[in-house]
Every structure is written in structure tokens, then in C-alpha cells.
Amino acid sequence: MGQLNAGIVPVTPFQQNCTILFDMDTKKGVVVDPGGDVDRILAALKDNGIEAEAIWITHGHIDHAGGAMALKEALGGVEIVGPHEADKPLLDNLEEQGRRYGIAGAQNCVPDRFLSEGETVSFGDHVFEVLHCPGHAPGHVVFYDRDANFAHVGDVLFRGSVGRTDLPGGDHAALIRSIKEKLLPLGDDVGFLCGHGPGGRFGEERRGNPFLT
């Protein structure tokens, strides 16, 4: 099995971590949460010789999904996978979100398939379990690679913080439940990348994150 690697392209005025997950040997991978600035994402793929086989979406907010349809077209029609169907109202409203936040070019997103708890998604030998983690958004999903001891948590958990819950569909109690019941039990040594800022390890957050202690 080739080594799992990740590159981050900050996109939109929100500086969202659009993440390119790829295999070091085959240079095949996926783009997670292309919120916008599609030209920058395409340039990163080209400059590093990476072939994106799919687009994965953690949740339906503008800075995570606003560029998905444009990227899909630019990549020749690759599949958009995720999030959970509970975020369909957000995905149907991305153009309106874009107008509200001044993000040009956002398109409403129509995934090729939604995801549910317990499913898996993969590229090459890299298999990720899908965890439905509502709270920041009703249909938020997390991608967990058990073999690599790695999770992409979107906006559920940050280093030293957690996702905001004051947006439509947000629920703080549900968010904390998602973190404590689904993420932290995976183990202290699981490394994570998130939608904004630096990543970390679950153990550090379990011990020191003020929202969890």
C-alpha cells in the first residue's frame, strides 16, 4: 500500500483548507471540500502531478462546497461524493450563500451520491469510513482511514476549538456528542486535518480543548 499524503490549498475569504488526499506512489487521489478558487486547486493538482478521481464533501457550507460543481466540470465529470443527505437544503442554497458572503462563482451543488454512517469511500488502497457527525451542519460527515490512523474532520473539531453552531441547522449539544461519542473513541493517536487552521491529534484535544474538558 502506498503512503497516504495530504496537501492543503487555502480557498475563499474564509481561508478554508481545501485538502488534496493522494497516494505518494500512484499520485491518484481526491479533493476534499473545494469551496472556491478552483483555478488554484487545479494548479496544485497539476504542479504536483496528482490525478483527482473524485470530490468528497464534508458538509454543505459555501466555503466547503461552493466550487464543487465547477471543479467537477474541470476534471471531466468526476463524482461528487457526500455529504449526508441532511445537508441537501444547504447545497441547494449555495448561490444564495455566495451572494450573502460576497463569494463570486458559487454554484448550487448536486452530489452524485450522498453518504450515510457506516459506508466507506476509497481511492486506490486507501479506504475511509464515513462517520455522520451533525452539530456544525446537519449532514456533516467525517472521513476516517483506520489503517493510516487519520481523519479528515471538516468543521467538527479544530485545534483548541470546535465548529460554530450559530448557523442554520447548527446544534451545539449534537456537535459535542459527535466529537465525544464518534471521534475521540477512535483513539488519542489519531491525527486529523480540519477545515480551518492547523490539524492535530485527538488525544491533545481530549486533554486540552476547552470545549471538551
Describe this structure in words.
The protein has 213 residues and is α+β, with helices and mostly antiparallel strands. It has seven helices and 13 strands. The strands form three sheets. A six-stranded mixed sheet has the order 6-7-8-9-12-13. The chain has a five-stranded mixed sheet with strand order 1-2-3-4-5, covered by helices on one side. It has a two-stranded antiparallel ribbon with strand order 10-11. The N and C termini lie far apart (37 Å). The chain has helices at residues 38-47, 62-65, 68-74, 88-91, 94-101, 172-183, 202-208, and strands at 4-11, 16-23, 28-32, 51-56, 79-81, 120-123, 126-132, 141-145, 150-152, 157-158, 161-162, 191-193, 200-201. It has one domain: 4-Layer Sandwich (Metallo-beta-lactamase, Chain A), CATH 3.60.15. It is 24% helix and 27% strand.
Quick summary of this structure?
This protein has seven helices and 13 strands.
List keywords for this structure.
213 residues; Metallo-beta-lactamase, Chain A; alpha+beta; single chain; six-stranded mixed β-sheet
Fraction in helix: 10-25%
Name of the top-level CATH class:
Alpha Beta
Query: Can you identify the CATH superfamily?
Result: Ribonuclease Z/Hydroxyacylglutathione hydrolase-like
What is the typical, i.e. mean, pLDDT?
Answer: 97
Secondary structure layout plus pairing:
Blueprint (H helix, E strand, L loop, with lengths): L3 E8 L4 E8 L4 E5 L5 H10 L3 E6 L5 H4 L2 H7 L4 E3 L6 H4 L2 H8 L18 E4 L2 E7 L8 E5 L4 E3 L4 E2 L2 E2 L9 H12 L7 E3 L6 E2 H7 L5
Parallel strand pairs: 3-4, 4-5, 9-12
Antiparallel strand pairs: 1-2, 2-3, 6-7, 7-8, 8-9, 10-11, 12-13
